[in-house]
Amino acid sequence: WVTLAWWFLVALLKRGKGRAWPLWLGLAVANAAALYTFYYTLFAIVAQGAFLLVAWRERGRRLLLRWLVCQLAVGAAFAPYVPVVLARARQLGELMAGGAAGADDASAAMAALFEPAVGSYALLMSVVPAWARLPVFVAPFLAVIAAVIAVTCVGIRGAPGRRTALEVKLGLAWLVVPVLCVVVFPFKGHSFEAKHLAFCAPALALLMGAGLSLEGRARRWTAGAATMFLVALNVAVVGRYIAPCVQKSDWRQLVAVMAPNVREGDVVLFNPSYIRLPFTYYYKTALAAGRGARLTPVDAPLPRQPFHLDSRLLGHRVWHVEASSAVAIPHPKVARALQAYERLVGWGSYGLVGRLWLSLHDLSRPASGTAQPAPQ
């Protein structure tokens, strides 16, 4: 959808006098559909306005004003989903406040709130037969996307001079503005971690490579080489993102250390609470393989809320699973409270994104009165 919206914008820039309302309508529909797919695409829409703002001397203010009016249509098209988001956010807050009882429903509500595309994807995967999802059938679909980008690269080429300057500005704005928004504004959330930004930036850089299709054979070869490099970079980043060696290996190692030592009646304490989702996914795999035992889950409160050891924890062996990163903030008092009890198991993983720590404390024994030494 982002690429299609960009194609409509380029067509509007190349178009002279005449009826342009079909292109404006296409731009509005593509932008609205992109927002429904994933909210990160808001940055791509901001990049459109940033380019038109920079190029207003060459293109005039009228084009920018028409684009702003077009975004009003985008907002109107997206408005029906706003009350749905608010209702799901309220539902999610109630489920999370309910603790372990509503954990499964909270997971579903969180997925529905933050990724509207999840429902559409699940529906599509339930309708499309399994054989149609094989790589041999997915490859032509990816080829169509590549063809759209290639056609755009050819279509943007124009006379040297002023048009070339506009193309460079368009490509640079498309790459820089989304990244700049994440750096400047205090966004907090799962999708704004460094690993997700590293995934999205090369994808936007593909469009920059298309925008650098300049006149002259040597420059075209240079632009083509740059675009191919960006394609390779994007493939490499996606490969690292889905490879087992990034963060999935951390969770697998944690479960591998934990599962053989779990006993019936053990409690697992998640700090912060939402790391329950990836842990549950990998621990279910261990249970299916006959390793481990059933655990009683307990969620740590938010960092600003009070914490104390209660009946859910006292008298049990407690597995403390803690994650820390730029957006995952654990409750600091949890580790301090548990240090007063004997630590039976300790394991940690430290990466570029953050830290993942596992410890087992026996709260069935009296507190020692002295803190255990911190792990090195």
Structure description:
Mean pLDDT is 67; it is low at 99-128, 156-161, 209-216, 240-246 and 371-376. The chain has a five-stranded mixed β-sheet with strand order 2-1-3-5-4, with helices on both faces. The protein is built from 15 helices and five strands. The chain has two domains: 2-79 and 128-242, no CATH class; 248-362. It has helices at 2-14, 21-37, 42-54, 56-59, 61-78, 81-97, 103-114, 117-127, 135-156, 162-184, 194-211, 217-242, 248-258, 276-288, 332-338; strands at 267-271, 296-299, 317-325, 343-350, 354-362. The relative contact order is 0.08.
Write a short abstract of this structure.
By secondary structure, the chain is an alpha/beta fold. Helix content is about 60%, strand content about 10%. It has 15 helices and five strands.
Distance between the termini: 48 Å
Spatially, the strands of the biggest sheet line up as 2-1-3-5-4
Overall structural domain count: 2
What is the number of helical segments per DSSP (H or I, 4+ residues)? 15
Report the count of strand segments.
Answer: 5
- Helix coverage percent: 55-70%
Beta-sheet strand percentage?
5-15%
User: Looking at the structure, what is the overall shape?
Assistant: elongated
Structural class: alpha/beta
